[in-house]
Amino acid sequence: MKVLVLGGTRFLGPFVVDELLGRGHQVALLSRHEADHELPVRLYEGDASEPKTLQQAVRSWRPEGLIDMLHNGPDWARSVVCACAGEVQRSVHLSCAAVYGRKPYCPVDEETAVVDPKDAPPEVAAKLAADDVVLEAAARDEIPAVVLRLAELYGPRDPRCAEWYFARRALDGRPRVALPDSGLQICHRGFVQNMARGVVRALTSPRASGHVYNLGEEKLYTLAQLAAGIARALDHEWDIYSVPGNLWTTPYAYTSFFDIRKARSQLRYRDQMIPRDGLELTMTWLSQHPRGEDWSYPGIEDPFGYTREDVLIEAHGVKLES
């Protein structure tokens, strides 16, 4: 199959391209950026949000399949539908778990109500609007669209890299780490290689058109298990302390996980790499490419202010059993 990937030059994109090539597909990218990889693909340089640029790439490459890595807002989605209607046989559009918001119950399946766009952050509202456009177009048989709602991505080349919060502590030789409320939160994550496999499964599944699929790893870890796994991957040992959640937070300090049975049954999705191995690869990459001093994470002030963490552990910490 000839596949056009919109974006595809950063983070998840190279893994998707590699998965496509490994399965014998021909690949072209439409992107404003140079590729992070040296894979044998055709590159159309340009802004995919420009309708004429997108239409020219479609007419030049004549793709049978399309993967929209960008999927950002209603105008964008309408441009994609217009360019691809009657041209592609299958298309996959990448959305995110955040469209469901923080639900008081889990797991979240595809029938769970999404958040009101008026109450959502701009980037989430943009995904919701794009979802609506392509799904409505699929219902009208204009484009064979599949929407994938991805769990929290992690892996090499992650520009945000939430795991750095813990990895730097281990690399700094911290003997202990504080987690809110015993670290029992479960945040659904997805290693990029596994998620790339799921993306290609969705593209090549003929009966997936018009469907929404939640996609995340099959095995879930608590926050405490994640912190222990990161230390182990970096050959480090530390004690984990529970502190009150209203006084401390970390990345992934909330519970949100998918019901992925639909993807397992209809797309035949399975983890290609177990999360432990994916985490070890991520830690190896982070050790070789440490984040800068300007690294930050939403909702966390002074993420490496160890003095405050130590004071909190001394005042309120309860050591967790390993």
CATH superfamily of the largest domain: NAD(P)-binding Rossmann-like Domain
- Helices and strands, in order, run as EHEEHEHEHEEHEEHEHEHHHE
What is the number of E strands? 12
For the biggest sheet, the summary is:
7 strands, parallel
SS summary, helix count: 10
CATH class group of the largest domain: Alpha Beta
Known CATH architecture of the largest domain: 3-Layer(aba) Sandwich
Strand order of the largest sheet: 3-2-1-4-5-6-10
Report the sheet-strand fraction.
15-25%
Termini separation: 49 Å
User: Which structural class is indicated by helix and strand composition?
Assistant: alpha/beta
Tally of individual domains:
2
Rough outline: globular
**Estimated helix fraction:** 25-40%
Low-confidence stretches: none
Name the average pLDDT. Answer: 94
Q: Might you state the CATH topology name of the largest domain? A: Rossmann fold
Rg, alpha carbons: 21 Å
Short description:
It contains 10 helices and 12 strands. By secondary structure, it is α/β, with parallel strands linked by helices. α4 links the parallel β5 and β6 (145-150).
Textual characterization of the structure:
- This protein is α/β, with parallel strands linked by helices.
- It folds into 2 domains: 2-150, NAD(P)-binding Rossmann-like Domain (Rossmann fold, 3-Layer(aba) Sandwich); 158-188 and 219-256 and 277-319, Alpha-Beta Complex (UDP-galactose 4-epimerase, domain 1), CATH 3.90.25.
- The protein is built from 10 helices and 12 strands.
- The chain has helices at 12-22, 51-61, 74-84, 122-139, 164-171, 192-204, 223-233, 261-266, 275-288, 306-316, and strands spanning 2-6, 26-31, 42-45, 65-68, 90-96, 145-150, 152-154, 176-180, 189-191, 212-215, 239-243, 318-319.
